[in-house]
Description:
By secondary structure, the chain is of the alpha/beta class. The chain contains 31 helices and 42 strands.
Amino acid sequence: MMKSNNKKENVFPSHSEKNTLVKVFVKKNKTSRRNFLKWVGFSTASVALAACKGPVIKSIPYIVKPDVITPGIPTYYASTMIDSFDIGSVLVKTREGRPIKIEPNLTSKYFNTTSVRIQSSLLSLYDEERLKNPFINGNKCSWKEIDNYVMNHLEKISKIKKDIVILSSSYPSFSTKKLIQDFTNTYPTTKWITYDAISYSVALDASEKIFGIRAFPLFDLSKTELIVSFDADFLGDWSPENMAKSYVKNKNPKKSMLKHVQIESNMTLSGANADIRISKTPSDIKKILFEIYQKLFFGKRINQDKEIDKIADLIAEKGSKSVIFADGDKESYILSFLINQKIRSNALQNKFILSKESNDKKLKKFIVDLEKGKIGAILIHNTNPIYSLPFSSKIKKFLKKIPITISFSMKKDETNEIMNVLAPIPHWLESWGDTNPITNFYTLIQPTIQSLFNTRQFQESLIIWGKIPEKNYYEYLKKIWEKKIIPQSNVSSFNEALFHGFVEKKENRKNNKLTYDYQKEIHEYGIKLINSGKKVEKNFELRLYTKISIGDGHQHDNPWLQEFPDPITRTTWENYLTISSYDAKKIGLKNWYTGSGAMNGNCVNLIKNHKILIKDIPVYIQHGQGIGSIGLSFGYGQKIGKLSKICEGKNAYVVYEDFSLIQKNIQIKKTNKIHKFSCFQVQNTTVGRNLIKETDLETFLKKSKKIWNEEEKVLTHKGMLPPEKISLWEEKNNQKERNGHHFNLSIDLNACIGCGSCVISCHSENNVPVVGKEEIRKSRDMHWLRVDRYYSEKINSSKNEEEIFKNPKVSFQPIMCQHCEYAPCETVCPVGATSHGMQGQNMMSYNRCVGTRYCANNCPYKVRRFNWFNYVNNQKFDYNMNNSLGKMVLNPDVVVRTRGVMEKCSLCIQRTQFVIGIAKKENRKIKDDEFETACSISCPTNAIVFGDINEKNSQISKKIQDKRNYKLLDFLGIRPNVSYQLKVKNLK
């Protein structure tokens, strides 16, 4: 449901008027419902139509309702989320002029999934710590003063022919690139340097050599039958585009089902989902890749390793239906690209991802110029080099010597502390823009709310300072698109492009003919690898990585992300050094549990070349970690920001020498400090219970369902009976099929990769509060949906627990309220607060609940949450619900719960009832895909399916009838309305 946004007359308040209003509103400590409605009543007209407005003139009273807004009805806008690390084609759900949820734009061909970071970026819009005004040398000023100050300096610098450097993260914007060219015409010494905190430079360099284009290759895994990954976490952040959706397309159990082999050091999301996982150090992984390359190209065998032979034979057997991924140095990428070319992998598309433009050589040249004093002005946009550059202290002193330094950022950070000019930029939800993230594919960014503060887009400043004739960036963007993109695209107008949020351009890219002779380079690389194998390495190899929650650290001050549990370690609010149990025992490092069930652990100093790089970093003993290797995630350790006082993370960028993800010769030394982890899940196994049913492909295909998905039966006085034939409520068993809707939810464990997108989506939709690190340690987390992670061995394995944990098999299982037909929680509630609805949902009447917690004690799934505190307007929980601006993110369709009551998943009853109401008004039948929950919408792999089982042709009905279907703890006879699809692994 998307609304096109046609341009209307100008009805907005001026910047000064708007900011005065916002200040008055934000300064209030508490916001009553009446005050909130007053604010919405005045502001909605001025903010909700921001997506298509030009210059601002005045505000209007809400009595004159904007055409695109109907109170109580959501309006959706197609846009593009982009920051220093992420990009996604999205739909923005707004209510009464406020963006309240980010959902995937499924009509888009690319970047059409929403990760936890993309969804959580919404909360950053309502961050009270955002920069609200521009500053010169620490003094608040007007934009006119900024313009005069900057233009005077730029003109002087241009005359003396010193460089004007624009330093930014990758920003694949077609219009911005043209704008910087126009800016360079005014100031000819301008240079644009791309600096990504986490560099993709080696991958782009390798691609340029092999494919002739400096861009990341686009892979489609939907027809792939074999993936062999060499330390590439392709389900994480290895590829700039999320690959999960195409990864699961061939995961349905059949003879040609995808087989995934992962060779890695850290336990990653990709490794956790692999059919076969091999744990090695990064150096060993490089050698294995080179040996497989040698065998496939020349038939040579350097090592008599049967494991390597088996992988090479598998690749040769599957041929073009195989794909090879590799991460690490440039040569690893080159080897993987060459193997893919050799086998003519069908996963390689004739398209490239253009969203990453890192160039280490240009950055190093910039550092040299900085030291030599060649730079007269620097404009830093959306990046924080003082925090993320490994040699930041070195450049800090040189930046201070530059005559004028300008920072374009949303918040205070380590870099803009030393800048002359702070030019605050709006959030992406307040901005115009475009991107060109894929070959021939373009997207648009449009504002869904008027700027909340006195901010200005980076491009708008360039237009003014560069004396470019267009009045504003919107006009510039529209003109460029109407001239350069729309005529060659699949749409006829700019407004149509805005409606869809993306366009495809009709042009063909010619393949470059390359003369690059790679054999000499690869030969020298091989000799180096062989010689390095002769050395006995006593110290550790450190593998740096990104967490799904924090990424490069751009959104470190986001409470949703800090409290999101890591899929593998299940910890929040921190990073840590991962180490194998074998290495931990040698050094005397431990994790242990306190009497309250919380986890503690030892800390170490991280040392290289006898120098302590990081002090007192906590150690997490990670099952499956490669022996001789350790892992550390980026994105933590910032000193500025409200949450930096709570989060005890360490800055991994100080170890990121030469932008290499693998650092050798690392030592660790145990310290006396004890770290208190905030861990969601401390139980690593199912303790023999059959919670996650799984089997191997051969058994699934050749044997009866009774073998691999046995129906659970209960011993009764009538003999062994299936649970559905046993009930305390006999009258219900004889009841005829219910009329109307009956909702069920199905989760395919073969498709669930554990990414957690559903968790944040649920958080956003249902106003779930953030409780903080200390409450997590007390097991008082409030998530309505959790994704449990369990370790196990191969099916029917006889290994003991210690052997299993050396290289465990990993399974993920999303758990929410199971909405049981005969719910144990309902029978024990003394006040009737929890009851069962006619549509299959377990209901909660918050006003009736007195917090006895009998329901929680009687729930076998442990999915009910008790409110220990009022999280709203409570200084102890100083997150988004503790300030007026943060509350703007709340969904008005879902009540904010208070202290002393229970809460849980409602299967998004507000969404189902909305769909039913709309269909009744329109006097029509509801379509199958109209019923959705927050988790089903956001799931990138479509593992979660929701719908009406009384509609026999619905997708959910087919899932329920599937032979892989089972219900969790079905033997209890409580008949849950949530079911699971058994997991099948391709082990042969």
